[in-house]
Specification:
- The structure is a single chain.
- The protein is an alpha/beta fold.
- The chain folds into 4 domains: 182 residues, P-loop containing nucleotide triphosphate hydrolases (Rossmann fold), CATH 3.40.50.300; 105 residues, GMP Synthetase, Chain A, domain 3, CATH 3.30.300.180; 69 residues, Helicase, Ruva Protein, domain 3; 91 residues, DnaA protein, C-terminal DNA-binding domain (Chromosomal Replication Initiator Protein Dnaa, Chain: A, Orthogonal Bundle).
- It is 50% helix and 9% strand.
- The protein has 21 helices and 8 strands.
- It has a 5-stranded parallel sheet, with helices on both faces. A 3-stranded mixed sheet has the order 1-2-3, with helices on one face.
- The termini are far apart.
- Bound molecules: adenosine-5'-diphosphate and magnesium ion.
- Magnesium ion (MG) binds next to helix 7.
């Protein structure tokens, strides 16, 4: 059989029962609003500069950064950075007792992607950290440089160092299930128990912070513990970086043989393959090799295969060969269970009413729930504040931004009825004609933006629709207003009126 062809007999219809599910809107996973506060031990995995003179300075900067960077960003974006060419005010390259102000600093990063991402998202943090740690008064010149693979030492790192750092806590025992993630959890367990079996590939998608990486790592732990050899767990960004650096340093054969002989291949956030033609091509061959030999492939993504823009058709069809499962935001009870467990794990108990306050306020992202628990811990341990519904509500509002309690779905609905000349009866009805569907979708979109109703509550209000329909509607309007100026004007007008309520 020619290479890269999947035998027809192995071709199964993707997920005949479940289908792919509706696309979740592409939340801006990089823009979480939660402030993360880390207390206790800091385990530093970022690279120190090899220069001994810069060592302590680099370490201080990295420790300060690590405290303020969300854990998932750390492993992807900060793990391989190095600080070099640190120049102090007195023009020396060492930390002198008389002058400790840093004048210039060069950040070496593994790729241009790292460089642009860090500059866009974290430049102000770098500045803040330098100011705090080294009392930089005058503007400090921070430059970013892409390290050549050979010079950076990245290529010398052992393969295991480049893989997704496995976190022992991300295991099945610590994963709390509820209706929104039961299927994903069961499928992940089946994959872990029977790799390369009927759920191959396993494609798990859902919006940010719902536990995809957690399940991916849980499967990886289980496979390793049960003796599966060469389990590769990697983020798609690292896979891409590694491919590019293998290409540029002429080590593509090593790259290929390492990935193609993997006993199981688990890639996180595969949506980052979009528009990267050569990496897609390489991954296609890797995938086929592993799949044809009945070894497990497990991919996570923020959208179902067909909704990942810029992904080649043949990859889309490969991704749909096995089981495609969507993860949904957790319901209230699951959120409460998660909050209690997270607090317990950090050694404190929260009164039930406080758990309720948090679970009501934070609905769509478990990482944000964790952020809230950390914040409450800090309130109690470091600020000596009493933990009650009042103090916690105040803090969560600070964390999440306040939503106006004056605007509710009813008000939105009445403005939409006027603007689109439909009746409220129509909006609540099962009718699916465009003249009704559009205003109903706009209601859902505005409901999400201007109230703190959950997706489920919005769906319930508009005729008992489920939350994935609501998500789909929100996404639809978000995209439509970009191309339809009439719709955009209508939405803006309603929003203007809402602001005046
Ligand atoms: P995603 O990869 O979908 O963005 P993660 O897997 O990184 O989300 O999850 C975000 C955080 O929430 C992690 O710390 C994870 O351990 C936690 N988490 C997610 N789902 C659960 C769950 N069902 N039970 C316990 N913790 C969870
Ligand atoms: Mg993830």
């Amino acid at each position: 059989m020619p290479e890269n062809v999947i035998p027809v007999t192995r071709f199964r219809q993707a997920n005949p029962v479940l289908g792919e599910g509706l696309a979740l809107p592409l939340f801006d996973s990089l823009g979480s609003t939660v402030a993360y506060t880390f207390h206790g031990f800091i385990i530093l995995k970022g690279s120190m500069s090899s220069s001994t003179t810069n060592g302590p300075v680099s370490t201080r900067i990295l420790i300060a950064l690590k405290k303020r960077v969300p854990a998932d960003h750390w492993s992807t974006w900060f793990e391989h950075i190095q600080f070099e060419q640190i120049q102090f005010e007195n023009n020396k390259l060492v930390e002198g007792s008389s002058a400790t102000q840093i004048k210039t600093i060069q950040v070496k990063v593994p790729s241009t992607l790292h460089s642009s991402f860090l500059q866009q998202r974290y430049m102000s943090l770098f500045e803040e950290v330098l100011t705090d740690e080294f009392a930089v008064g005058t503007p400090c010149d921070i430059s970013f440089q892409v390290a050549s693979a050979a010079a950076s030492g990245i290529s010398k790192a052992s393969p295991s160092e480049e893989l997704l750092a496995l976190n022992q806590n991300l295991n099945f025992d610590n994963f709390i299930t509820g209706p929104s993630n039961q299927l994903a959890h069961a499928a992940a367990q089946a994959v872990a128990d029977n790799p390369g079996g009927s759920y191959n590939p396993f494609f798990l998608h859902g919006s940010v912070g719902l536990g995809k990486t957690h399940l991916l790592q849980a499967v990886a732990h289980h496979l390793r513990d049960t003796g599966v050899k060469d389990v590769i767990t990697i983020s798609c960004a690292s896979f891409t970086n590694e491919f590019i650096s293998a290409l540029s340093s002429g080590r593509i054969d090593q790259f290929r043989s390492r990935y193609r002989r993997a006993g199981a291949l688990l890639i996180d956030d595969i949506q980052f393959l979009c528009d990267k033609e050569r990496t897609q091509e390489e991954f296609f061959h890797t995938f086929n090799e592993i799949y044809n030999q009945e070894r497990q492939v497990f991919l996570t993504s923020d959208a179902p295969p067909s909704e990942i823009s810029g992904l080649s058709e043949r990859l889309v069809s490969r991704f749909r060969l096995g089981l495609v499962v969507q993860m949904d935001p957790p319901d209230l009870e699951t959120r409460m269970a998660i909050i209690r467990r997270k607090a317990q794990q950090r050694g404190f108990q929260l009164p039930l009413e406080v758990v309720e306050v948090v679970a009501h306020r934070i609905r769509d992202n478990i990482r944000e729930l964790e952020g809230a628990v950390l914040r409450i811990e800090s309130m109690s341990r470091h600020e000596n504040l009493e933990i009650n519904t009042e103090t916690v509500t105040h803090t969560i509002n600070e964390l999440m931004g306040e939503t106006s309690s004056r605007i509710d779905l009813r008000k939105i609905e009445s403005l939409i009825c006027e603007e689109f000349m439909v009746s409220s009866l129509d909006l609540h009805s099962p009718r699916r004609t465009r003249s009704i569907v559009l205003p109903r979708q706009v209601c859902m979109y505005l409901g999400r933006r201007h109230t703190d109703c959950s997706l489920g509550e919005i769906g319930q209000y508009f005729g008992g629709r489920d939350h994935s329909t609501v998500l789909h509607s929100i996404d639809k309007i978000r995209q439509s207003i970009l191309i339809d100026s009439t719709l955009q004007r209508s939405v803006e007008m309603v929003e203007e009126r809402l602001r005046r309520i």
